[in-house]
Amino acid sequence: MKTDQLIDMLSTNLEPVKRGQVGKTLAWALVVGGAAAFCVMLTTVGLRTEPRDTSHLSFLGLKLLFTLSLIGMGTALLLRLVRPGRDGRRLFNLTLLPFVVIGLAGAAALALERPMEWGRMVLGMNWATCLFCIPLFAVIPFVALIWVLRKGAPTDLKRTGAIAGLVAGALGATAYAFHCGDDSMPFIAIWYGAMVALCAFIGALLGPRLLRW
Amino acid sequence: MDVRSTEPELRSLMVAGLDGDAASHRSLLERLSRQLRAYFKGHLIRINRGPVEAEDLVQEALLAIHTRRHTYDRSQPLTPWVYAIARYKFLDYLRRTKASTSDVPLDLAEEITVHDDSAHVESSLDLERLLAEVPPKARQAIQYVKLDGLSVREAAAKSGMSESAVKVSVHRGLKALATFVNKERRS
C-alpha cells in the first residue's frame, strides 16, 4: 500500500473529535469501578456493625485519607500516562509518599506501645480477611480502568499498568475500609499498604500484555 | 525528527483537523509522514532494515496518530506527542521482530541526517487483505465513507444503518485496521 493512499483514506470525510473524552471516560471507570467494589463488599463481608458509637470513625477517616490520596494521585498520573509525550515521573515517585507517611505513623504508634501489644496491633483481628478482600474488591475497578486505558495511548505500559493496579487496589481498600474492624495504625500501614502495593505490582506485570496497541 | 521549527504550523493543522477540517488533517498527515519516514529510516538502518520496513512503520504510526488523536491535549505541544507515538511504535517493532541493536553498523547510521524524506516506497501492507479482516459492517462503512468518499448520510441510506452507526462503524473499523497492521507484522 502506498502511504498517500492511506492518507487519502484517513482524511476522507473526517469526523471532528470531541474534547475531553479521555478525562470523561476515566472518571466513568472510577465511578463504576468504585461502586462495583462497594457492592462486592456489601454482598460478601458487609458493612461494619461494631461498635455502634462513633469511636471508630477517626480510624475510618485515616484509612480513607490513605486510600483517597492514592486514588487522587493515581488518577492524575493516569491522565498523563494515557497521553503520549507526557512524562509523569515526578508524580510517579510522589505516589510513594502516602506509603511512607502511613509506614512512619505505624512505626510511631508501635514505638509508643509496649512490645507485648505489638502482635495485637499488627495482626488485628482480621488480617487474613483484609489480605483476601482488598485484591478481590480491586478486580472490577482494575478491569474498568484497563478498558478505559486501552482507548487511550499509553506508551509506558509497565508504569501505566502499575498505576492502574494502584488505583484499583486503593478503590478496593476504600470499599474494605467500610467493613474493616481493625483500628490501629500499624494494621493500616502493613495490610492496607501491602495489599495496595501488591495490586500495583500485579498491574505492572499485566500492563505490557493488556495495554498494547 | 526535527519538527521544532514547524511546531506552530503543525499544531494548528492538528487542531483544525480535530475540529473536522479534512484538508488540514490531510496536510498534517502528509507532512508528518515525511518526518516519520526520516525518523524510522534513520533508526532502521542501524539494524540493517530497509525502506519497506520503514514505510510499514510510517503507515502504522499514521494510523495510530489518526485513531488516537483524541489523546492529544490541545494545550500541549504536538511534537512530543507525535514523537512519543513514533518511539513507541519503533520499540514495539523491535520487540516484535526481536531485532537486536548489536548488529548496528554505526558508520552507516551517521549518513542519515535528513529530517524530511519524501522518497517513499510501497509498504508491505495490503489494504485489501487488511480490510478483509475487519468485521463486515465496519468494512462496508469504511468502503463507503473512507474509500468511495460517500457522505455519512449517503452511506447510511445505502447500507440501511443510522448515520451515527455508520460513524461508529468507521471509527471501530479503523481501530481494528490499526490492530491488524500491528498483528500482521508480529506474526
Could you name the key traits of this structure?
heterodimer; A: 213 residues; mainly alpha; 9 helices; 76% helix; elongated; B: 187 residues; 69% helix
Descriptive account of the structure:
The complex is a heterodimer of chains A (213) and B (187). Chain A is mainly alpha-helical. Helices cover 76% and strands 0% of the residues of chain A. In chain A, helix 2 (21-44) packs across helix 8 and helix 5 (96-112) runs antiparallel to helix 9. The model of chain A has no long low-confidence stretch (mean pLDDT 93). Chain B has 187 residues and is mainly α. Chain B is built from nine helices and no strands. Chain B has helices spanning 7-18, 22-44, 51-67, 78-97, 106-111, 127-133, 136-147, 152-159, 163-186. Chain A binds chain B through residues 1-19, 21-22, 82-86, 152-153, 155, 212-213, and chain B through 17-23, 25-26, 29-30, 33, 55, 58-59, 62-64, 66, 68-74, 76, 79-85, 87-88, 92, 120, 122-123, 125-127, 142, 145-147, 149-152, 167, 170-171, 174, 178-179, 182.
